[in-house]
Queue: 2 jobs
Job 1
Amino acid sequence: MIFLKTDEEIELLRESNRILGMTLAELAKMIAPGVTTLQLDKRAYEFIKDHGGEPGFLNYDGYPNSICTSVNEQVVHGIPSDKVVLKEGDIVSIDGGVYKNGFHADSAYTFCVGEVAPEVLALLRTTKEALYKGIDEAVAGHRIGDIGYAIQSYCEERGYSVVREMVGHGIGRDMHEAPEVPNYGRRGNGIVLKSGMTLAIEPMINMGRRHLYFEDDGWTTRTLDRKPSAHYELSVAVRKGKADILSTFEYIEEVLKHSENSKV
Ligand code: MF3
Ligand code: CO
């Protein structure tokens, strides 16, 4: 069942997403060689709590932390650890969730650690651009397959591959609501989008082949060929004419302007 949100509910989603955007920006300030992914997780927990939210991921389906931190060939759902030390040239995807006033925010950004190789930066840029191509299709009257088609064609034309095993999703009072939002598809396929649907769009794009390996910790996924993977996610509300983006990268990108890490 797809829940259409009222304007008031959409404003509550925007508030949860604002806190999440600020949280990811706070983590962006910390990203540097020598930092562990567990340090990032601890800061996320504190920051979200200090801003009146709850970490939406913590204990979700038994997930043990407040964020997912996926380094290099890890695709998504990497578990923060004091054993994972970021090093020069790495990329780290941070996926976070904030629950506040009954509504979930979900957003992710792939960051650079120090100076990153140009071909990896190109993967990150393409993945982020593909997310916005998908968002351009999230308008009333279009279909869910139009979003996937836009993302897939943009990435495959540039030689990258699209992860199939995991997809975007509806979001609201639950973190994962109907419908599924695949990052692949055909134009004109799938359900018709309606104003008031709220979707988390989240391309997971691989430099090499699309196939995944699921680690035996029960969460972490990585590319089978161990080539890098990128992940960007924004939650949006479907509207007539133009999607309303509820999450924000603005706080993150303000921090990155002043950062020594490579910029996407
Ligand atoms: N953004 C992730 C997703 O949509 C949520 C992480 S799942 C969790 O799948 F269990 F870690 F919360
Ligand atoms: Co998500």
Job 2
Amino acid sequence: KMIEQMDKEYVLHTYARNYVNFKKGINATLFDENDKDYIDFTSGIAVCSVGHGNKRVADKIYEQICNITHISNLYAIEPQAKLAKKLHELSGYDIRTFFSNSGAEANEGAIKIARKYGETKFANKRYKVITLEHSFHGRTITTVKATGQSSMHTPNFAPYPDGFSYHNKIDDIYNSIDNETVAVMIELVQGEGGVQPFDKKEIQELAKFLKEREILLIIDEVQTGVFRTGEFLAANLYEIQPDIVTLAKGLGGGVPIGAVMTTLKDIFSPGDHGSTFGGNYLVTTAALEVLDILEEIKDSGELDETIIYFNKKLNEIYENNKDIFTDNVGLGLMRGLRVKDADTLALVIKTAFEYGVLVLKAGKNTLRLLPALTISKEEINEGFKRLENALDKIKQG
Ligand code: PLP
């Protein structure tokens, strides 16, 4: 009760909050102040990629912050340089990276790169960025405008920057390109929009078309990146060569870090872009350890096994509850079950919570599951058992 009162009194009301007080986390299990446990199928919306309370990451952070937490980007930062090298290696792309503090800020960086490319590369000024309906790119004024959801373009925050248009499907992008278009920005699996993966061939054709016209392809991997779909980047899975990729969420395992990576290695000069906190000792040290852990479970085959096991259990729930679910969508550990209507979805999320399993919503009618990539078989079994019990309760009315 006290936390609820304080929160309501002193925190701006931007979220419809659930007043549970989590005190402890172990991998994909959370404990509230009454020691009730919850299986976490959300991982803080795809952030806690290596689970809660990860000892290896905690130890590295502790060791680092006992020494230096922050210096500023006026000096070279060893873990930042190492992390940039690691991203270069893991992505398989010949890229350089700028570090930001969030996904929206990474996408701002991507748009600035595209704008500078458009200003300096062509005889005429090119600045238009094409995005897709149901996309989500962030909450800053510019990334809100890039987001293809008209409900987010409220007059409350107008005027928005020019140069953004969004389209219903990949096919519609071709006709909307003109000689002022500088980039196309997309998610390969739309996260907030409903966990909707695009067709691989369709994306490969688009990538080829854009490359021939020297129009940049920006892949927003804020949600899909860092092994969420099974590969380091969803772009690796789709076998495309983007010009710009953005990351955030899972990269830091919970510390705020974003990244914009580009093959336009010399696009920026000192003064073009910056961030006080971006890529400091704390966050890049954490991210290096997160990537080490994830690389280990990828190389050992454990991650692929977890994906197969999770999706087997998920499919059982889907098949057993066709009266509630209408489709099973997603890639890797970024999963969605379409629910027959929005009211039922709200009831599923609420009842699941009561039964001790945390799940998310995406779009209007998608139940979204984004577990930690380190989730154990026992946690998967227990989480789906609780979800099944919650669904039984709903069916009993
Ligand atoms: N892009 C995508 C695809 C996202 O899913 C999100 C967050 O949900 C963002 C950008 C914004 O990231 P942040 O909330 O870290 O600014």
